[in-house]
């Protein structure tokens, strides 16, 4: 299993859990309340393919990093845009 999500609509990824997390984190921050998210990601993503194929793993891991904390549409960057440091 692996987790790839989006924070904006109209892209290739339609899983909007990332957007829901951003909205909820910002809501708590605006209210001055603590809110914690715990994300558990397997060390090796499960997929129908050869785990020895390093390029497949790199693609999946890179997409997960883009979801969470790399790039302008990541969860971290959307929270930063709202004025909070994740």
How would you summarize this macromolecular structure in one to three sentences?
By secondary structure, the chain is an all-alpha fold. The protein has 3 helices and no strands.
What is the strand content? under 5%
- Mean of residue pLDDT? 84
Unreliable stretches: none
Task: Using the alpha-carbon principal axes, give the shape.
Answer: elongated
What's the story with the biggest beta sheet? none
Structural class by helix and strand composition: mainly alpha
The DSSP helix count reads: 3
Number of domains: 1
Percent range of helical residues: 40-55%
Give an account of the 3D structure.
With 86 residues, the protein is mainly α. It has one domain. It is built from three helices and no strands. Helix 1 (17-30) runs parallel beside helix 3. The protein is elongated and about 45 Å long. The model has no long low-confidence stretch (mean pLDDT 84).
Quickly list its features.
86 residues; mainly alpha; 3 helices; 42% helix; elongated
Q: What is the secondary structure topology, with strand pairs?
A:
Elements: H1 17-30, H2 54-68, H3 75-81
């Amino acid at each position: 299993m692996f987790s790839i999500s989006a924070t904006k609509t109209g892209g290739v990824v339609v899983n909007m859990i990332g957007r829901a997390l951003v909205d909820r984190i910002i809501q708590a921050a605006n209210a001055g309340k603590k809110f914690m998210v715990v994300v558990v990601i397997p060390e090796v993503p499960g997929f129908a393919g050869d785990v020895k194929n390093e390029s497949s793993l790199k693609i999946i891991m890179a997409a997960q990093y883009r979801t969470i904390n790399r790039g302008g549409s990541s969860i971290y960057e959307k929270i930063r845009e709202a004025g909070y440091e994740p």
